[in-house]
Amino acid sequence: MKTYFDCIPCFVRQALDALRFVTDDENVQEHALREALRLIGGLDLKRTPPEIANDVHAIVRKVSGSDDPYVDAKRKQNETALAFVPELRELVQASDDPLETALRLAIAGNIVDFGFASVVDEERIRGTIERAMEYPFAADSIRRFRHAAMNAEAILYLADNAGEVVFDRLLVEQLPRGRVTVAVKGGPFLNDALMADARMAGLDEVCKVVDNGSRVPGTVLSTCSDEFRQKFEAADLIIAKGQANYETLSEMDAPLWFLLQAKCPVIADDIGVETGTMLILEPRMA
Amino acid sequence: MKTYFDCIPCFVRQALDALRFVTDDENVQEHALREALRLIGGLDLKRTPPEIANDVHAIVRKVSGSDDPYVDAKRKQNETALAFVPELRELVQASDDPLETALRLAIAGNIVDFGFASVVDEERIRGTIERAMEYPFAADSIRRFRHAAMNAEAILYLADNAGEVVFDRLLVEQLPRGRVTVAVKGGPFLNDALMADARMAGLDEVCKVVDNGSRVPGTVLSTCSDEFRQKFEAADLIIAKGQANYETLSEMDAPLWFLLQAKCPVIADDIGVETGTMLILEPRMA
Questions:
Q1: Does pLDDT of B72 surpass 60?
Q2: Whole-number percent of chain B with pLDDT over 90
Q3: Mean pLDDT in chain B?
Q4: B16/chain A closest Cα distance in angstroms
Q5: Is B264 an interface residue toward A (CB < 8 Å)?
Q6: Is A9 within 8 Å of B10 when comparing Cβ atoms?
Q7: Is the ipTM beyond the 0.90 threshold?
Q8: Do B12 and A16 touch (CB under 8 A)?
Q9: Neighbours of A95 (CB within 10 A)
Q10: Minimal CA–CA distance to A237: which of A193, A283, A169?
Q11: Which residues in chain B have their CB less than 8 angstroms from residue A42's CB?
């Protein structure tokens, strides 16, 4: 997805939110916000929004003096999500269709937008789970996803955020054993999941976990490791979680299934749906 | 009111909206948006938001090739508001308390945010009028406003937008005849009311109308004419309509009554109310 002009005020807003997360010093916030404005004023808008966001957040990291200012927040998000595991597992086990239930929960996991909140609203998570369980996905989409998943030899699962990876594990458990590789980020960006988060979620107990060699949000192949790119090309099914993966991969010709909620109005417009829609987006070639 | 950091993404959003209003050429939009970002990155944030907005909109005017790109929109806004006059006048005349009714309608006029819409939603205006008529303003505020208005020798009424001035006329008609001067802007800024709008509203038939010698939104005295400043200092009651007048005058020690709806969350926070609150703000010294 290209960067729309409407993304630009949002980059500024995101920079401000992130700066407030990493420092209380208003002079530092102001100086960095000015730097972000000048940077955004000069950026190449032909790139995708996550690539631009990565450049903007480099300023935030510099201010924070930490390469991973969100490490504590991510741990808390994983802990909050892990507390839901017993009831989520019960939902899957009690279901007539465990794969479909796990698929719905994986999408619910994306909807739970932890953002900068270090304390996550458990009521909101519960409401989101209930909404995903009842959501009117096209029956054909679920049927085709099942068919694709059951027949794939090499499934690459592109993870999104900390916390969300806990939900992802439930779906991975329903996919053919030994055929799934989950990819996390190669370096920290906001609350994007890293190897440590995948381990907290226990993903390494149920499948292979690799990192993609890149800290850019979403999946920008040119910034990823050769090893990851080979996995990407060899996969006959790629499950891509979240908005940033859609933004960076939507124009790619690959066996991509996007699982996400269109939380951002610009992304929703790009897809052609209402903001708030939960999506199972099938490969174009399908 | 000072410029808060939260105003900054909003300046960028406003610049984009305004650029889209004045041109369909995306290359022009992009170039001007970059210019706006660099400008905002270098601005003196000790100034009030309207002063900064004025600098940002200078870029928009340059792009538009017009000093007043909103002239048609303003005329339509006046026409739309004028169509309501018969029923508004009936409300005032049928009221037990014509001054209070006219005061409520003047605040309703501010709530009707015409913005960039060249077609205004009449249902929304009607809903706003109904809301203002029932709104639970403090009875003491209305009583004190009446007392101040009836005893003032020199009332200065700072107008806000085109369209809204039609509503203002109804309040002016209830104020002591011969004591009111309405001030409009000295030059165009968005849909701020100019002399032509005051005339369309018929304000010149019921009171003296002057311009303040400035195109900066709100009332920034240092940019106004000497003649206006003298009127401002001589007034023993100043009625200031809308957010921009609050933003630019809120810290001034003067007999200022602000009539507005706090539509912007940053302004609402500054006042200490919820977004959407309709306000009769009394002078600090009162």
A1: yes
A2: 88
A3: 93
A4: 8
A5: no
A6: yes
A7: no
A8: no
A9: 15
A10: A283
A11: 34, 38
Q: Is B170:B204 a contact under the CB 8 Å cutoff? A: no
Query: 10 Å Cβ neighbour count for B22?
Result: 20
* Integer angstrom CA distances of residue B213 from B184, B186, B208, B222, B226: 9, 4, 15, 10, 8
pLDDT score recorded for residue A124:
84
- Residues within 8 A of A (CB atoms), B 24-63 only: 26, 29-30, 33-38, 40-42, 45
**What is the reported pLDDT for A110?**
85
Do the chains contact at A37 and B35, CB–CB below 8 Å?
no
| Whole-number Cα distances in Å, B253 to A173, B202, B211 | 68, 31, 22
**DSSP count for chain A of H helices, then E strands:** 13, 6
pLDDT value at position A286?
A: 44
Please name the residue that has the structure tokens 């992304």.
Answer: A267
Residue B108: pLDDT band (50, 70, 90) is very high
- Asked if A75 contacts A200 with a C-beta cutoff of 8 angstroms, the reply is yes
Flag residues of chain A having pLDDT under 50. Answer: 286
From chain B, the residues in CB contact with A36 under 8 A are 41
Q: Which of B2, B4, B7, B8 to mutate to test the interface with A (most CBs of A within 10 A)?
A: B8
Q: What is the pLDDT of residues B119-174, one digit of tens each?
A: 567 888 899 999 999 999 988 999 999 999 999 999 999 999 999 999 999 999 99
Q: Which domains does chain A have, with CATH numbers?
A: 7-64 (1.10.8), 71-281 (3.40.50.10880)
Helices A164-174 and A98-111: crossing angle, nearest 10°?
160
> Which residues 230-259 on chain B approach chain A with CB closer than 8 angstroms?
none
Which chain B residues are Cβ-neighbours of A60 within 8 angstroms? Answer: none
d(CA B22, CA B28): 10
Residue B99, pLDDT score:
97
Which positions 68-87 of B are in contact with A (Cβ < 8 Å)?
none
pLDDT value, residue A255: 97
Question: Of A12, A36, A41, which is closest to B34 when you measure between CB atoms?
Answer: A41
- Cβ–Cβ gap B41/A29 under 8 Å: no
pTM of the model: 0.89
Backbone angles phi, psi at A188, to 5 degrees: -70, 135
Q: CA A142 to CA B31: how far, in whole Å?
A: 45
Please give the single-letter amino acid code of residue A218.
G
State which residue of chain A sits closest to B14, comparing Cα positions.
A9
Cβ contacts of B6 on chain A, cutoff 8 Å: 16
Task: Name residue B37's amino acid.
Answer: L
Q: What is the pLDDT of residue B119?
A: 57
Q: Do A9 and B9 touch (CB under 8 A)?
A: yes
In this prediction, residues B11-28 reach a mean pLDDT of 94
Nearest residue of A to residue B32, measured between CA atoms: A41
Q: Per-residue confidence at B286, pLDDT binned at 50, 70, 90?
A: very low
Nearest CA distance, B40 vs chain A (angstrom): 7
